[in-house]
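User:
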Amino acid sequence: MKDRRFRLLAILLALSILGAACSKNETTEKTKKKTESPEYEQHEMETKDPDAETSETEETTEPSQRDTSARTSPTPTPTPEVIPLLTEADIQSMNNNNAIIVKNDEGHVSTIVGRFFHRPVADVEEAIDAVKGVQELLGLQTGYFPLAMYGATYDGYTYYTLKQIYGDLTVQNATLKIVLDPEGYPCMLQSSLVTNLGYAVSDPKINGSQAEQIVLSQVGAGYSVMHEYTKKTCLADEISQAQHCFQVVTNNPDGTIGFDMPYIIHFVDYDGNYIKSYPTGFLPDDSNIADYGNDSYFTDLVPENRTYTIDRNGESYAFTVPISYNSVDQQYYMADPSRKIIVADFFEFEFNDRNLVFETSSDPDNWSENHLITYYNYIRSYDFYNAFHIQSTDSFGMPMLILTGYCDENREPVNNACNMGVTNGWSVFGAADVNTYCYSLDVCAHEFTHGVSGFARQGNIYANEFGAINEAFSDIMGNICEMYMGDTWDTDWLLGETSGNTMRSMSNPYLYNQPIFIGDPYYLSPSLQGMYGIQDNGGVHINNTLISYLCYKLYAAGMTLDDLARFFLCAMEMHTPTADYDDLYAIFVAAAQLCGHAEIIPVISQHWADTNLTGDRSKNAESVAINGFQRINIPFESYELATHCIVSVYYSNGQIALQALCQPDGVASILIPADDNSYIIIVEEYSDEFWSAKTGEKALDYYGTGWTTDANNMGTFTMDSGDVATLPVYS
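Assistant: Predicted structure:
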């Protein structure tokens, strides 16, 4: 059996124009594994080991390290190529003014669609030479060290995925994508690289154990630390700033807060201050460079296809799955040695030191129906992606572990289903016994897609726009998979319909109270608190229809399921953790061009216009008037103050009507029903953004001209349908 190990290879480049010094990364030996298809090839990067002994005639990596006096060189040392620094005008000139250039909130370029280098390149090292030419546009004023993760070739285009390292740290959520066209020219770039890595790092005043205690004191009861993941790291947040800190991973005790996120990653700075946290399905582990010998679990298993019939949503449903016999213990396993998929117990793996208790039976016909259909649907998700030459979630055939009996540490069932990321060399999924979510292929394919897109992004910020894009890709590919495999009767692109628990509609989002455009009645504004898990992590599930609705439009416009799958897989391969809606538009345009479907670009552009995704989303939401509602905009004196506040709207009888948080621009934008009710608008202030302690509140005064703490001066207001009003600044 081939060795599946995957190593992270440091590309040691002398970025002399940045004044950078190289650093060394340890590597593990591996055997490169490719698919056989000439159309799509996933491959790992081959680079020279910088520590390997060189012969007399070999050159060292950097020109500055060459010692020509120590040996005779048969040819002169070549002069290093001078890489010109490009401007936006230069890039437009290369592309006949048709390049797309997207900037982030800091004003740095985050996405380029179009050629941005003067010549073809032969490999990843030369591709990074092209990055040197746009370093100033990207805001890279200090040294950075990209870490080559993997490459992919699709229809003649080559994709490189790189991670940023700084010193001995891999920077969290800092990923770079470079795409080469069939002629070898760099033609697309998408970046989440961090721009402020040049600051001095002080020694920590705390250690890892103290960081864990700080986290536990912050979050309270119900959380348990996963000690093996506590380490120093470098955190890149939403606006691409870097900060050295400790990461601490805990469980997510509220399993229903997010559909797919069983863990929470917390960050504590070197001074002992709690920075932030976010829920995730991807453990920040280096297990993907280690070999845990998981292939050996399948060695003695002999599969036999067996057919079962269950009740699925009131109908008799028959399906066939491989059940494997192990002659060593004479037990049958719910396992597929061909695809390397196996079912085990959730509690034992999650809460008993990664203990593997596989699902076995002495009778091959005696299994939980829930577990059987879950196993079957993950097999079909695997087969769907394999049809597009993506083997398992990492494209290299990583073994899959399906954990049934999803529960908490007290064995209380969790009503959820999730992708649990990569742990101990497994691609892990959790499935509950108390629901029927996994009876639907689109749900299992949704979770499977989280694994595929997570590997593509090489990072995950599961909140606000980033999380909504993440969820949209999973809904899109889940539905395409289900329809592609012929396992649904619906034409509305529903999610979970065959399980009896329909959750969303991609063709008509309003059916399940999801938005169609920025600022509509179901839209949840992004917020800082979204990073802490508040309001669906800033609307990651609710707002995902802003993007998934486009898939239905493309299908209605005539794209086949096969074309849709290839288009969205191409887009998934080109996005990084901090790609927002602006970046995603450029990514979709690039994907349409690369997949040979330039005719859909007008549909994409019209969708962005119709949904208010173009431009400043905060301002777009604040300007939208809706019949039946009055929009109230409350600007805050400072963003810091805004993040410490909650806007609460009460009926005149004192009952709560709704609550809202501030958008990234420091304005709370609220739609209040224009009905016969009178409302009171109150801003509640707290000591910090975690709302640890309430420090006061103010109400809109009787005349609507200011804010008051005097209950006798508090005003009650009726709303005007279709109106937009901006209240006095809250200070």
